[in-house]
Amino acid sequence: IVRIKFVQTIFFSVILGLIYLKTDDEYSQEDIMNINGAIFVIITNLSFTNIFSVLNVFPLEIPIFLREYGSGLYGVGVYYLSKTLVEIPFLILIPVIFMSILYWMSGLVHDANSFLTATGIAVLIGNTAASFGYLVSAAVPSVTAALAIAPALMIPFLLFGGFFLNNGSTPDYLIWLKYLSWFSYGNEMLVVNQWEDVKNINCTSSTQCIPDGNSVIKNLSFDKDNFYLDLGLLFALFLGFRLISFITLYARARRSSS
């Protein structure tokens, strides 16, 4: 299974890299859509891959766990940590491998610091998505239910990630969905990391062009001053989803033993 995960990651990153292939370090107006599309693919791929990789963690063993917990063999904390800590190396290595291939092939800004920043963001996005997967896994009775519920819960977060709806157009009554969306925080950070230092975008047509990277950021209603706020809020979601998943599992264990 481990080998399959790595092979699958390399395969998809190469395929996506060939789709978005860009070998020079100059940007045209067409490249704006392509680069932002690559960023969308990075976030979406890491999110779905990591969520679905952990959905079966708790449902498959929950009857055994509840029986052994009721017998006093071990506590919820020990069980939870044993199931989640073992995944951490993969939740770090998979995004690193994915970004190491796709980042350079797709023409994201050719700068080592920007690459390391983007890779760090990708690791945090993947781990936050996995934390959400643990939450769903801890709450549902079966793997089948988890596979049915997880996509339905993810779609609203995806829709408010700044890909399908401009970041400044979110309805006030649904703003809370954007605040819970790791897609939104990750997208803004990766877009800022990509475009902030791009001083010129070539224009060969007579129509109005986007002149530089900061204009790309502005057109998406993103703000480069939000970078560290986004980073903090994304980390808060990572911790929050983990905490809620633990509380959910703890509540199920207490209820079954009462």
TrEMBL record:
Domain ABC-2 type transporter transmembrane: 4-195
Key words of the record: Membrane, Transmembrane, Transmembrane helix, Transport
GO cellular component, one term: plasma membrane
Single GO term (MF): ABC-type transporter activity
Record flagged with keyword Cytoplasm: no
Transmembrane segments: 35-58, 64-81, 88-109, 115-136, 143-165, 227-251
Leader sequence residues: none
Membrane topology type: Multi-pass membrane protein
InterPro entries registered for this protein in UniProt: ABC2_TM, ABCG_transporters
Compartments it resides in: Membrane
Protein's recorded name: ABC-2 type transporter transmembrane domain-containing protein
Lineage of producing organism: Eukaryota, Metazoa, Spiralia, Lophotrochozoa, Mollusca
